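Pipeline run #58 for the internal structure catalog. This entry was flagged by the ingest filter as a single-chain record with no existing model, so it goes straight to prediction. Upstream metadata was stripped on purpose; only the residue string is passed forward. Reviewer on rotation: M.T. Logging verbosity set to normal.
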Amino acid sequence: MTSIIGSLTWAEQTGGKLTLAEKFSLMRTVIKPISWRLACRWLRLDDTKALDYEEIILPDTPLTRSALLLLESCASDALVQHAWRTYLWAAALAVLDETLYDPELLLLGALLHHLGATPRYHGRQAVHCFTLESAHAALDWANQNDLPEDCTRSLAEMITLHLNACAAPEDAVEAILLQQGVACDTLGSRYYEIDSRFRTRVLEDHPRLDFNHEFISFLQNETALRPHSRTAVLMSSGLSLLVRSNPFTD
């Protein structure tokens, strides 16, 4: 049976390298939902809902502290703050959608999903996608911290899936939320659904630090290094323009 593009099984089988058919499939899958979300954002069609910052659970556990230490040891300040914002946007959308989720697992995914974009891990493996490098680093970290096997697999899965640009209904809740949090922080997707006071607090506590520029530069490098990756397909579909036109003033 064919594995789902972006899943951990698919990434392990292919190294993250897309076939021509998979490239077309990915483009068909992401164009419609991205276009709709961007239209909502640009036309301000999102229905903003009241949200208190204190409603968000911020897990402070040995595991989240360990994951944060790992991220801070190898990532730029901009990438660290992106991880925090990703979690907060995702958690906010979960509250608005009345979605039940595992806060600790979601935060672990947010903190570790871009390890493969750091100098320590990027380009160090014979693979075709930085999310697989992130997943491998997360798996190593999980094994060192005695994370249960089911949580370890879920963590790696949500990391490889987050680049798909749109979530499938069958994806785990935390994987869907991570994807939504990343999309909000990079593209502004569903941003205006979130209470303006909440948005201001997030950006004050976790400033962007020219994240757009750093992120686009990384995407360009990844595309040049791995022309058959999901990143390359998304870049050819206008991803860098979408990032540049997001609602954030870095």
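catalog note: The chain has one domain: 18-44+52-244.
catalog note: The chain has a mean pLDDT of 90.
status: ready for reviewer M.T.
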